[in-house]
C-alpha cells in the first residue's frame, strides 16, 4: 500500500465522505428554489447569489453536524500509533483487517488523533451551543429592550446603564473571570431534602446567573401568549399553561440540574460557557431592540392600537415586534457567527472545555504549539470556523438586501 | 457642551467604580484567596491555617471594606500579631509602622505587588503596556488608512465592480477572528514545512528557513518587518473589514445627498466631488467606529500576544489570570476598563464636535 495520498485524492475522498451532506444540500436547494415564491423572506433569499452562497455554507455545516456520525472516518478521540503529527493523507500502518478507514485524510494531531474526524465532530459541538445561546440572548434582549424603548423613563435609564456596564467590560477579561474552575466552588451551598431525595445547589455566580437568565425565555413566552389571548381565557390558559409546564421543567433541569426525568441537564462546564456567552450577547441585543422600538413607537399603527385600547405588552409584542423582525433576523444571523467566534476564543484560551473536546477553538489551541512545524491540526478547524462564520455573514447580507427590497 | 461632557464624565466614573468593584469581587472570591494562601504559604496548609493566613494578610472582612482599601478611600489594614509584629497594607519593607501612610490604594499610585513577576504591579505593567503600545501603533498605522481607503473606494460608486470586490473582502475579514487568521498566516508565511517558505528557500530567495518569524519574542528587543509583520497584520485584518463596511455605508449615504448632486450638476469633476464634498462628511461615522474599535483591539491583542508569544499587556493578562495573581489581574482590569471608557468618551465628544448639526444646536 502506498504511504501517502496527494492532495487530489485527499479532496476526492473527503468529498465522498461528505456524501450525505451533498444529498441533503441538493434536496434542500431543489425544494426551496421550487417553492421560493411561497416561502416569504426565506424564499426571496434564493434570488440573491450572495444569500444563496451564505445559506449553502451554513447548511453545509448544519448537515455536517447532523450526519457527523456517518461522515467521520475514525473515532475523534481514538489514538493510533505511528500517526502522531502525521501529514495529511497518511496511510494507517495497521487497518485491523480493513475495519478501519485506511487513511488519516487531514493527518494526525499531536496526540495521533484524526484531524478530519475531529473537525467534523467539532461542527456538532459548535452548532449545538452557538444558535441556542444566541436565541437565549435574543429572548433576554427582547424582553428587556421592548419595555425600555416603549415605556422609557427610569426603567430605561437603569436598564441602559446596566447594558452599557456589561458592554464596557472587555470580553476576554469577563471570560477569564467568569469561566474559571474556582468560580464554581464559591457561594453558599443549599441542600434540599425533598421526599427523602437529597439535592444540593450551590449559589455560585454561574449558577445564579443561569437561574436568572434562563427565566427570561419563560417570561417572554408567557407574556407573549398572555397578551395575545387575553380576551380568550380558555386559549390563554392552555398556551400559558403549556409554556409554564415545559418551561419550568426545562428550567429545573438546566439551571438547577434537578430534572427528575433527566431529559434536560447540562454539564457544569458547558453551563458556565453557555451563560457567559449569553451574558455577553444579551446587552447588544437589548440596545438594538431598544433603538428599533424607539423608532417604531411613533408610527401610526401604534397610535391606532393605543386608541383601540390595546395593552402596552400587546402593542410591544404583537404590533411593534413583528415590524422589527427584518433587522432582528439579520442581526440573529450575524450574532450566531459572533457567538461562534466567542466560543472559539474560549476554546483558544482553554477556558471551560475539556481538553478532549473536539470543538474548533480548543483544537486550534492544541495545534498552535507546534504550528510552525505541523500547521495542519490547527489549520483544518481554523478554515472550518472561518467558512461557517463567513456563511453566516453572507446569509445576513443576503437577507438584509432582500428585506430592504420590500 | 460643558454640561454634556460633565454628565458623561459622571456616568463614566460611576461605571468605572462599578466595573472595578465587580472585578475586585470576582478576583477575591474565597476559592481564589485559598489558592493564593496555599501558593504564598505552603501547599500542605490545613484549612484553619489557610483561614488564619487570609485573615492575617488583610483578606478577611467584608468585600466592601477591602475594595475601599484597594481603591485608597479607606485606611489600609494594620494587624499586630501575637509576636508584636505590626504588618499592614501600607507597611512595605523598610517602612516602619509609624511612618507608613494611612491610605494606599490605586488612587495613591500603589497598585500592589505581583506574585507572578515578583515586582510592583505598576512597574511590571508599565513595561508591558509600552510593548503593547508599539503593537497598537503599528496596527493603527496599517488598519486605519487601509480600511478608510477600502470603504471610500467601495462607497464612492455603489454597486460597481470595485465595490463588489472590496465589500466581499471586507466580509471575509470580519469572518476571520484573530486566532484563525493568525494560524493561517503562520502556516502560509512562517512554517518551515508548508506554505511559501520552503519554496522561497529552494529558489534561494531567503536565507533563513521561514519568510516571516512565527513568534514575535525577538520583537521585544527591536522590531523588524519580519518579526512584527504577522502579529500586526493579524490584529489589523479583523478590524479592517468592520471599519471598511462602516465607511462604505457612510460614504454611500453621503453620495446620495442633495449637495453632492448639486456639485455634480454644477460640473465639478467626480474626483473633486469625492475629495472636497463627500469625504469630510463621510468620515464622521467611521471616526466613532475607529475609537470604539480600541476595546476590540484589546481582545485581538490578548489573542495575538498569546499566539505569537509577545510579552505585552495581553500576555500579562493571561499570565495573571492563569497564575491567580490577584493584584496584577486587578491592575490589568483597571487599565482595560480605563481604555474602554476613555475611548467611549472620546468617540462621543468627537462625534458631537465633528458633526456641525449637533455641535451648533
Protein described:
- The complex is a heterodimer of chains A (406) and B (361).
- By secondary structure, chain A is mainly α.
- Chain A folds into 2 domains: 7-123 and 362-403, no CATH class; 128-336, no CATH class.
- Chain A has helices at 7-17, 19-34, 40-44, 49-66, 68-71, 115-151, 153-168, 171-178, 205-213, 215-228, 233-256, 268-296, 300-307, 312-323, 325-348, 360-367, 376-404, and strands spanning 90-91, 103-104, 189-194, 197-202.
- In chain A, strands 1-2 form a two-stranded antiparallel ribbon. In chain A, strands 3-4 form a two-stranded antiparallel ribbon.
- In chain A, β3 and β4 form a beta hairpin.
- In chain A, α9 (205-213) packs across α12 and α15 packs parallel to α16 (360-367).
- The radius of gyration of chain A is 24 Å and the shape is globular.
- The mean pLDDT of chain A is 86.
- Chain B is mainly alpha-helical and 361 residues long.
- Chain B has 15 helices and 4 strands.
- In chain B, strands 1-2 form a two-stranded antiparallel ribbon. Chain B has a two-stranded antiparallel ribbon with strand order 3-4.
- In chain B, β3 (113-114) and β4 (119-120) form a beta hairpin.
- In chain B, α7 packs across α9, α9 runs antiparallel to α12 and α10 (258-266) runs antiparallel to α11 (270-282).
- Chains A and B meet through α7, α8, α15, α16 and α17 of A and α1, α2, α6, α7 and α12 of B.
Count of individual beta strands of chain A: 4
Most extensive chain interface and residues per partner: A-B, 46 and 52 residues
- Residue share in β-strands of chain B: under 5%
Largest sheet, strands/sense/barrel of chain B: 2 strands, antiparallel
Total number of helices of chain A: 17
